[in-house]
């Protein structure tokens, strides 16, 4: 009997695109008997609904099985590979090169719950929890996500993020950022990464909501990601899981765009 369907389920076209990107089965050990499409559907449901693992509907595989694959793919960084592959496909589909030449960086402080292994206090935002640092291209697609405790300043978080990605972006030349990234970071980026870090300043004489050039792109990405209730706050015990959900949420969005 066919199971109950959910709005978060992958369509046949989306699954056809995703299936070749899935990790191959293990060479040794017990033969894989689970339907990976149902595993991915369950993860899509968890991202959108934001429910506990143990509250996963019975139509999906057992929550322990779904969590096993999530943790396995998190440890092998498959979610990062999936995000990179889909982003390159989507960029090419709109006539852009696979690797961007410009990007935008920003951060978002979010609360954590009591099970979080690490957290800090962001005095500026008055938030106790973690801070999501993300770098996106000019389409708003995720290039790199770095989750740290909320007490780490934007400039220090940016250094960690840039250090991890500088060898992966051969065409990157220019990065836009807000005033929180001004100061010595500009010189550090120029020397260590050979990029230009341009600060997009706000005009304090203008009142109310103002759309700032380029900075609105990364703010829109945060808005896309926050449509997933799993990301409404940081519910994860491990920071690695927090990053995995960011990459997975963006991958789901790109799958929809590629086969919309």
Topology, element by element:
Layout: H1 12-18, H2 36-49, H3 63-75, H4 78-93, E1 102-111, E2 120-122, E3 127-137, E4 142-149, H5 154-165, E5 174-177, H6 184-192, E6 196-199, H7 215-225, H8 239-258
Parallel strand pairs: 1-5, 5-6
Antiparallel strand pairs: 1-3, 2-3, 3-4
Helix pairs in contact: 2-3, 4-8, 5-6
Overview of the molecule:
The protein has 260 residues and is an alpha/beta fold. The chain folds into two domains: 12-75, no CATH class; 98-236, Ribonuclease H-like superfamily/Ribonuclease H (Nucleotidyltransferase, domain 5, 2-Layer Sandwich). It has helices at 12-18, 36-49, 63-75, 78-93, 154-165, 184-192, 215-225, 239-258, and strands at 102-111, 120-122, 127-137, 142-149, 174-177, 196-199. Strands 1, 2, 3, 4, 5 and 6 form a six-stranded mixed beta sheet that branches.
Give me the CATH fold name of the largest domain: Nucleotidyltransferase, domain 5
Distance between the termini: 28 Å
What is the name of the CATH architecture of the largest domain? 2-Layer Sandwich
Give the tally of structural domains. Answer: 2
Give the C-level CATH assignment of the largest domain: Alpha Beta
Number of E-state strands: 6
- What oligomeric state best describes the polypeptide chains here? single chain
Helix run count: 8
The profile of the biggest β sheet is: 6 strands, mixed
* SSE string: HHHHEEEEHEHEHH
């Amino acid at each position: 009997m066919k199971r109950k369907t959910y709005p978060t389920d992958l369509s046949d076209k989306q699954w056809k695109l995703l299936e070749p990107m899935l990790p191959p089965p293990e060479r040794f050990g017990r033969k894989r008997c689970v339907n990976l499409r149902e595993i991915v559907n369950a993860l899509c449901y968890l991202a959108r609904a934001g429910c506990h693992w143990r509250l996963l509907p019975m139509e999906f595989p057992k929550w322990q099985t779904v969590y096993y694959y999530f943790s396995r793919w998190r440890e092998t960084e498959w979610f990062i590979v999936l995000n990179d592959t889909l982003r390159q496909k989507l960029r090419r589909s709109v006539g852009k090169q696979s690797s961007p030449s410009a990007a935008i960086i920003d951060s978002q402080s979010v609360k954590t719950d009591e099970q979080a292994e690490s957290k800090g206090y962001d005095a500026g935002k008055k938030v106790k929890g973690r801070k999501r640092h993300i770098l996106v291209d000019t389409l708003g697609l995720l290039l790199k996500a770095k989750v740290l405790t909320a007490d780490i300043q934007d400039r220090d978080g940016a250094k960690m993020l840039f250090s991890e990605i500088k060898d992966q972006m051969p065409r990157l030349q220019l990065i836009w950022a807000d005033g929180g990234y001004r100061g010595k970071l500009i010189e550090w980026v120029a020397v260590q990464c050979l990029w230009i870090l341009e600060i997009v300043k706000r005009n304090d004489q203008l009142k109310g909501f103002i759309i700032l050039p380029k900075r609105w792109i990364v703010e829109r990405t945060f808005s896309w990601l926050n449509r997933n209730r799993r990301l409404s706050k940081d519910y994860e015990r491990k920071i690695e899981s927090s990053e995995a959900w960011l990459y997975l949420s963006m991958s789901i969005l790109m799958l929809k765009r590629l086969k919309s």
